[in-house]
Amino acid sequence: MDFHLSEEHRMVQNMVREFTQKEVIPVIKEWDRRQEMAPFILPRMAELGILGINIPVRYGGQGFDYLALGLVCEELEAADSTLRVVMSVHMGLNSMALLQWGTEEQKKKFLVPQAKGEKAACFGLTEPGAGSDVAGIKGTAKRVGDEYVLNGEKMWISLATKAQHALVVLRTAEDPHEGLTAFILELDRKGVKTGDIHGKLGMRAGSTGWISMTDVHIPAGNRLGEEGEGFKIAMSCLDNGRYTVAAGATGLIRACLEASVKYAHGRTAFNREIGQFQLVQQKIAYMVQSYEAARLLYLRAGWMKNQGERNTRETSLAKWFATDASFDAASEAIQVHGAYGFSDEYDVERYLRNSKGAVIYEGTSEIHQLMQAGYALGYREDADLRCELPSYDAEFWQAAG
Amino acid sequence: MKIAVFVKQVPDSAAKMAVDNGTVTWGEAPLVINPWDEYAVEAALVLAEKYGGEVSALSLGGESAKEALKHALAMGCGEAILISDPAIPSPDAGATARILAAAATKLGVYLAIFGKQAIDADTGLTAPMTARLLGWPSLTLVAAITQLDAVAKSIRVERGIEEGRQVVEGKLPAILSIGKDFGEPRYPSFMGIRKASKAEIPTWSLAELGIPAPEIKVSWPEIFSPPPREVSGDLITGDSAEEIASKLVDKLLAAGVL
User: Fold this and answer.
1) Element holding B33 (H helix, E strand)
2) Are A354 and A245 in contact (CB under 8 A)?
3) Going from the N-terminus, what domains does chain A have, and what CATH number goes with each?
4) Are the Cβ atoms of B187 and A48 closer than 8 angstroms?
């Protein structure tokens, strides 16, 4: 067992870190205050190839493996959670689903521009009345000749107003699970409206919104997978989205740890730097523990993706652990900073606000607890999928095609 | 047109430097490409993109210097060469210049580009010394390259100096050292990273350069940290900016600063 990162992985990590340190960290606080996504983020991530990091070169990507995606997400969220969210929706929940379930034609038409960063992509599963209860989806798609006509509302959609493509899951039949179908929706189609949601606790430098569909006509060729496969596709999307969330939350824990260590060295109380007080040390020790454990969990999930092994269970565990731990780490980082941590003069209050979202989306912590218990008790097992996420084959991934 | 860019592997600028028994140490801090050399790589790549040509990155050092070279490859250099020989364990600037001059000659370059200095020893001597040994013009602290004529074999640059910009022309081949004003160096690209991680970097020894081990004339018989200075701060308060400024002037006059 080799725990070292490869030279290639280290260089990817350093490159993304350099980008965030030079271009994101100096300005992100201001965008967070403005509650706006900085306009340079998406074009810059596209230009640097980040938006296609783990997509095969033949489909417009950079041809790196799933571990590289995790490392990128860790680096991005160490700067700000909203950058990692871009990868969760654009890559984890959308582009990787096209890689897994798309026809060759769909890959060429939709995945290539997404991997090149020419088009940004988002994911529409949640509705105003259906979150964890995916079977409660009410939005519909009706087959009319060679088209589908879409109607419904999607809520809490990251990049809703920034993306050009969305993967939406809608109802084509009454059966709660078997009646769901996935569609690729170009957001400039007639009948589509999008908007942003403001007043969020965190992720303020990001874009979260809604998509409304009123009699939107799309070609039948935009259907991803078969009719009735929408629930399975959505769940497989979550296996990938959750992986990016787990890796990102790990980066957030690291940011909390680094900020706390720095402050603990710099701040004195009772004529000693506060790092010398045992109760401050305890907080830092817990951050170290959770960072290291979270990192091992997401790297294992990424490794399994590379091998082509089903990783629903491992990814769920990584996501649950890392997001809960990032919330705790951020809260304790504020405590280390004392009153200064309570103000936005320091980054840690933003870390806490940002950390809360991830214990809710892509499976609440409660859902993940049910899943883990279900696996342990034997109540739950993963059925084979018609299309599995392809294992990482360096030769195929890196060839021009 | 062939361009050489010389890079050095140095301790990270965030490293805590210490002197231990007359030796400089930086603990576990990572080694990185000298940040100024990233500007040099940027300049070399910009020139190659604009005027055509190939960029070779070279580094004098141990095996670990390959990491700096891989960084340069990942930024876009076409090839990388390590210059390493057990006969040169720790060369001074003069010895380094002799070795690099031989390497530039062996490569047959029109331009040899350096960062303005290395952040470890901070001498800024290597570029001009290499130029002197080769008999090439030494164009240091370059902020912009405004003209390059491969036919007339001439180059015009702007030097970034304290007083402003100085326009200088020289004949090719020439040595350039690049300053911060040149513009931010690019990041390694993902495709460059893949290429760099797979690259086999050849090593040139002194024998391959065709030179004997250069004499080392500067040694460091004693290195010590400067003793800490006693400094104290004084917070000047007042009801208005004018009052604070007035108090400050009084203090400066009393201290004999003004």
Assistant:
1) strand B31-33
2) no
3) 7-120 (1.10.540.10), 122-229 (2.40.110.10), 231-396 (1.20.140.10)
4) yes
> Shortest Cα distance from A359 to chain B (angstroms)?
31
pLDDT tens digits in sequence order for chain A, 401 residues long: 889 999 999 999 999 999 999 999 999 999 999 999 999 999 999 999 999 999 999 999 999 999 999 999 999 999 999 999 999 999 999 999 999 999 999 999 999 999 999 999 999 999 999 988 899 999 999 999 999 999 999 999 999 999 999 999 999 999 999 999 999 999 999 999 999 999 999 999 999 999 999 999 999 999 999 999 999 999 999 999 999 999 999 999 999 999 999 999 999 999 999 999 999 999 999 999 999 999 999 999 999 999 999 999 999 999 999 999 999 999 999 999 999 999 999 999 999 999 999 999 999 999 999 999 999 999 999 999 999 999 999 999 999 97
Both tokens of residue A111?
A: 């995945």
pLDDT at B19: 84
Contact B194 A8 (CB under 8 A): yes
**What is the DSSP secondary structure assignment for residue A183, as one 8-state letter?**
E
Domains of chain B and any CATH numbers: 2-209 (3.40.50.620)
Contacts of A341 (CB under 8 A, 6+ apart): A263, A333, A334, A335, A348, A349
Locate the chain B residue with the closest alpha carbon to A57.
Answer: B191
Choose among A8, A14, A49: nearest Cβ to B189: A49
Identity at A64, one-letter amino acid code:
F
Query: The whole model's pTM is what?
Result: 0.92
Mutation target vs B (from A15, A18, A22, A53; most B CBs, 10 A cutoff): A15
- Check if the beta carbon of residue A62 is closer than 8 Å to that of residue A10: no
Among A75, A77, A349, A362, the active-site one is A362
Facing residue for B197 by CB, picked from A7, A22, A62: A7
**Number of alpha helices (DSSP H) and beta strands (DSSP E) in chain A:** 14, 10
B191 interfaces chain A, CB cutoff of 8 Å? yes
Chain B interface test: which of A6, A8, A22, A262 (most B C-beta within 10 Å)? A8
Interatomic CA distance for residues B169 and A208, integer angstroms: 55
Contact B193 A8 (CB under 8 A): yes
Partners of residue A64 in chain B, C-beta under 8 Å: 190, 194
Report the C-alpha gap between B34 and B12 in whole angstroms.
Answer: 8
In chain B, residues with a C-beta closer than 8 Å to the C-beta of A53 are: 190
A289 token code pair: 């523990």
Eight-state DSSP code of residue A129: T
Residue B52 near residue B1 (C-beta atoms within 8 A): yes
pLDDT lower than 50: segments of chain B: none
Nearest to A398 among B74, B187, B194 (CB): B194
Does residue A362 carry a catalytic annotation?
yes
Closest by Cα among A35, A8, A20 to A248 = A20
> Which CA distances in Å does A169 have to A155, A172, A173, A359?
12, 9, 12, 22
Residues of B in contact with A8 (CB under 8 A): 193-194, 197
User: Shortest CA distance to A237 belongs to which of A362, A136, A70?
Assistant: A362
Contacts of B191 in chain A (CB under 8 A): 49, 62
The minimal CB distance from B196 to the residues A11, A22, A49 is found for: A11
CB atoms within 10 A of CB A21: 13
